[in-house]
Amino acid sequence: MTKIETVRMLTGNTEISDDFISFYLDSTEKFIKGYCNIDTIPEDLEPTFLEITSMRVKANSSGSKAALGEGLKTVGSISDGNQSIGYQLGGGGTKTFISEEDFVAAYGYMLDRWRRMVVPKSTPKRTCGSRCLHDTHPHPNRARW
User: Read out DSSP for 14-79?
Assistant: First the structure.
């Protein structure tokens, strides 16, 4: 089963276009690679990658047809008397998207297992102390070491 078919199955919507799913596959892959500081997504992280992608596709598709920016319902009106809440779809002026911070909050425990720390490369500081840790050193008394 391909990634597109898996995402389509997870969303439960068989009418979503391949291009729409491909966009979110690419976007989620870049997000995970950037968050974890990795070049490729490991095989053990693949199910999480597909699950996050399917959640993003589901959140940004409305009804049976998928269109960018039409997704989750947003509150349109609230009345206090009988506590009724009216909703409007994302296409009605306001658009709701699931942010990357939401995915970090939900899947951070899983992504953090693969996260690598990035340390800027710097040149070692040269010291002329009693012990020099460098292989090449311009100190005139190198023979003494």
Answer: TT--HHHHHHHHHHHHHHHHHHHT-SS--GGGHHHHHHHHHHHHHHT-BTTB--TT--S-EEEEEE
Tallying the residues shown for the chain, one arrives at 145
Query: Pick from 91, 69, 88, 73: which is nearest to 20 by CA?
Result: 69
* Angstrom distance (rounded) from CA 24 to CA 134: 49
Separation of alpha carbons 56 and 142, rounded Å: 62
pLDDT by residue for the chain (145 residues), tens only, comes to: 899 999 999 988 888 889 999 999 999 999 999 999 999 999 999 999 999 999 888 887 765 444 444 444 555 566 666 565 565 554 444 434 567 777 788 888 888 888 888 777 776 665 555 555 555 656 555 555 4
Kindly give the pairing relationship between strand 84-88 and strand 74-79: antiparallel
The token pair at 109 is 């425990």
Are 38 and 116 a contacting pair, CB within 8 Å? yes
